[in-house]
Amino acid sequence: MLPLQPMLQAYDAQKEGCMSTDANGTNLIEIRDLKMHFPVTKGIIFQRQVGAVKAVDGVSFSIKKGETLGLVGESGCGKSTTGRAILQLHRPTSGEVWFQGQDLTKLRGEQMRQMRRKVQMIFQDPYASLNPRMTVGDIIGEPIRVHGLRKSATAVRQRVQELLELVGLNPYFINRYPHEFSGGQRQRIGVARALAVEPEFIVCDEPVSALDVSIQAQVINLLEELQDKLGLTYLFIAHGLAVVKHISDRVAVMYLGKVVELASGSTLYSMPMHPYTQALLSAVPIPDPKVEKKRKRIILEGDVPSPLNPPPGCHFHTRCPIVIDKCRTEDPPFVDYGNGHFAACWRARESISLLPGRGAEVIAPPEHPIPEPKVEPNAE
Ligand SMILES: Nc1ncnc2c1ncn2[C@@H]1O[C@H](COP(=O)(O)OP(=O)(O)OP(=O)(O)O)[C@@H](O)[C@H]1O
Ligand code: SF4
Ligand SMILES: [Mg+2]
Question: Which of 13, 41, 121, 292 could share a disulfide with 19, CB 3.0–4.6 Å?
């Protein structure tokens, strides 16, 4: 018999925008049914809206204090927009962002300014995100002055030097300009700038994708060290699952404005339920020639549809290798399969066996068998 009740409850919770994806523990931040639709207008003088780019279309998740949530997906799926909408750099179309008992989407003026100090962002491009006309001392010192965290110029300078030391740079670099640094060093400056206001939550938007592989590891290690030292909470955005594997406690996979799967790192890598996650995982190289030889990549056909006009039903149905009729018309709910493993797929439970030789059995290390899902979905 199919256990319909848990699914219906998940439907109801999602409809009310109060679905909690918290596995257990206290949330530092909780995002509920977040939507960011950019209007598309026509006309020069009298502009009228003719459509909307649904960059983020109903995203819900939570992050516990001290946790790192990895957010992955292809280019254009809405990762950066999600991060920006959480920090209110884009005002969301709808939804809620709860942080320390306050809904950030409702804050304005001074209240918002105070809250901005606690939520920061590290940007993808360390070359474009630092003002080339400002010295490192000014770049890192500016937020300290703006938020009045140190009173005198000497105290600001001292704090900047402390921060440079914290991110592994020489404090004597304070008078240098960004062009005098390497990419990895610039990203460290970006990290120091984010830390200058003593934040609690940081959105790291592809902080290593512009860097060499060897430098990537250094920056990721630095972020981990700082997390341990300062008790930081991260939303870590990346293109592929390989980058987030090391740093994330849980991982959310995004496709065309929606989160399609969310689970702890170990569960997601060993038991992916959504065909899109399985395709992403099949692209992650495994450092074992015997295993690597046996593996087949899942090549997704076709392009990612436009967020201006996403396909009906499951957004992934135009590229899914195991699509069924129902997928073309009905949007699958985001269901908890136990232990905080969520997936939005009508065939989540059977998907691994339907993609033989490509799913978890070749991804999971031999000592990590595939567990049975706790709750069975109402799969066809
Ligand atoms: N300010 C904007 N106005 C209109 N559309 C936008 C705006 N910002 C982003 N978009 C659109 O929203 C969608 C999601 O963009 P976003 O930058 O969030 O993707 P992403 O997942 O971060 O991609 P990437 O991995 O390439 O950084 C894209 O189709 C993009 O064109
Ligand atoms: S709901 Fe259907 S189309 Fe979407 S991922 Fe699952 S099987 Fe594929
Ligand atoms: Mg981006």
Answer: 13
